Amino acid sequence: MAKRPILVAPDPRLKAVAQDVAKVDGEIRRLVDDMLETMYAADGIGLAAVQIGVAQRVVVMDIDQKDGKRNPRVFINPAILWASDELATFEEGCLSVPDIWEEVERPAAIRAEYLDRDGRKQTVEADGLLADCLQHEMDHLNGVLFIDHLSRLKRSIALRKLAKAKKQKETA
Ligand code: NI
User: Average pLDDT, whole number, for the chain?
Assistant: First the structure.
């Protein structure tokens, strides 16, 4: 396994629409392992392949990390089959949008299908943090960041903050 650098917004590669994985093979499983290592090293709870510059529909997640225990989840080619009319609000952050936390409203519950690490088709019924996180990560596969859900004003403040932080980092 290898840790990979995480892209930080603004970056055109984060706007890419990711391709379906044609076959879950050893190469994809290596990508999954690298993504999990990258996510855990960055103290994240979810990561999409797009965030390490790989435009494929692969998501990893672990929303149960506690006391060093891990429950890694892998979603390949995830697709939403159903979403509730009821909405829920979560404060979201993103490894590609550092130091910004904002409330985002999304369907409270979803049903999704995906391929697991072995390429088997699975479905998941999710609510709470899992539903929120899955929708956030699936947005990444379509080039959408959580700040794209904010009001125009909040979004432009966030973008200015990101651009400033990036500039400081480059000149540091
Ligand atoms: Ni994210």
Answer: 95
User: Rounded to whole angstroms, what are the CA distances from 34 to 3, 37, 105, 163, 171?
Assistant: 6, 5, 30, 27, 29
- pLDDT tens for 75-88 read 999 999 999 999 99
Q: How many residues does the chain have?
A: 172
Residues that are catalytic: 137
* Residues contacting residue 133 through CB under 8 Å, at least 6 positions apart: 45, 46, 61, 63
Range of weakest confidence among 43-47, 68-72, 105-109? 68-72
**134 CA to middle of ligand 1, Å?**
10
Q: What is the CATH number of the domain that holds 60?
A: 3.90.45.10
Q: For the whole model, what pTM was predicted?
A: 0.95
Residue numbers of the domain that contains 31: 12-171
Name the residue type at position 136: H
